[in-house]
Amino acid sequence: MTSDRLLRAADPAAGWRVDPESSQAQVMLAGILATPRAGSAERSEPVPERRHVTRRQVWRRRIAFGGATAVAVSVAMSTVWSGGPDGHTAAYAVTAKPDGSVELTVRWEQLEDAGALAAKLRQAGVPTEVGSGPPTRYCAGPAERDRTSDALNKLDRRGEPASLDGYLMRPQLFPEGSSLVISTYSDLATQVDYTLLYLAPTGSTSCTISGTLGSARFTGPGPRPTRFTWPQPRE
């Protein structure tokens, strides 16, 4: 029809294929609405007002829907990636269980304050200290270390994201006079950051009465090593 042909000729977006949810579409719509249609006085057949209004309404609805979609996606992403104070993802969760055990779920690469985590564990009933280096020796024999295996162990979090680690602590099984140690330090020679969990005599973080658990993270600019050397205390 003549009116359709005239409308397409006057509408610069008639042959334009673009995502109606994009910012480009919103800018184009604003330009269409603000620009007078050329040659409107010479038209032999006026464009029906109903059709003109409907076209504008369709564009507005589609762009409004696109904006709503963008807001919904933004909210969903915030929900997924925010969980801590000030919009930061929570680095850990501490859960005290009815049987007296305590479960720790942690993203080691996001842990910046080991002291705050230690305080949280103490609130849950786990005596905890903070260290700044690896334990240099064992202060318990192999048999005694074996008896601590039920006091501190790593959970199998199969199906969870690889960034999540889980640990189960049973303070009631800690050897008398011992505490959990969270030790964080950097090995400048290998460019690896370590965070270790182990049991030690209270007030002495340099030796361990259990095996060591935790995380090793390469921080250097060079090629990433295929394996890390885990700290081994001497007997």
From TrEMBL:
It comes from Micromonospora echinospora (Micromonospora purpurea). The chain crosses the membrane at residues 63-81. This is Uncharacterized protein. Keywords: Membrane, Transmembrane, Transmembrane helix. The keyword Transmembrane helix applies. It comes from the Bacteria. Residues 126-147, 216-235 are annotated as: Disordered.
